[in-house]
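$ ./design --mode recover --in tokens.txt
reading tokens...
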């Protein structure tokens, strides 16, 4: 008991704190921050601080053409940026879209290849012979043109294409070289 007649509790760190009386509101504490190791790492590290002009950072901006988002299977919620050119999909090191979430049906090297066709402003998906691949639930053996929202199934993993570039919008080649 202290001089006022309230009981004191011992707070972490050995300091005494008075117990709240009926007239005092219990102070609210902010929830403890999760340890840094509990936060999942982003699939790609940022190249510049958010909203920083490229001229000030000295880093050439990246140009996203779209994203693949895992919508079903191991790794649901992970996403992968697609940039200009060819993106290799597989579970091994060196793959642009590395599906290393435990789906044993995904080949390590080049299970599928996704290319942005700049002449026609669309994504084209192909796979090597023997690789199992479905587009919107249909088996695909030949190169297939994709549209925004199409779902590619590789093994037991379904990836949804979120296309930024298309007939309606695409990056200027002059802009990309600056």
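writing sequence...
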């Amino acid at each position: 008991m202290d001089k006022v007649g309230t009981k004191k509790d011992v707070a972490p760190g050995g300091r005494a704190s008075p117990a709240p009386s009926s007239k005092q509101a219990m102070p609210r504490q902010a929830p403890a921050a999760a340890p840094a190791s509990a936060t999942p790492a982003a699939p790609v590290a940022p190249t510049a601080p958010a909203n920083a002009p490229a001229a000030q950072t000295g880093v050439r901006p990246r140009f996203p053409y779209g994203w693949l988002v895992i919508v079903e299977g191991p790794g649901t919620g992970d996403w992968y940026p697609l940039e200009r050119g060819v993106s290799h999909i597989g579970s091994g090191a060196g793959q642009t879209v590395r599906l290393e979430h435990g789906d044993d049906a995904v080949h390590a090297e080049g299970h599928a290849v996704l290319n942005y066709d700049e002449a026609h402003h669309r994504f084209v998906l192909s796979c090597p012979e023997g690789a199992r691949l479905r587009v919107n639930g249909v088996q695909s053996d030949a190169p297939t043109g994709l549209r925004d929202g199409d779902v590619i199934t590789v093994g037991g993993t379904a990836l949804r294409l979120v296309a930024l570039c298309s007939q309606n919008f695409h990056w200027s080649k002059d802009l990309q070289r600056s």
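exit 0
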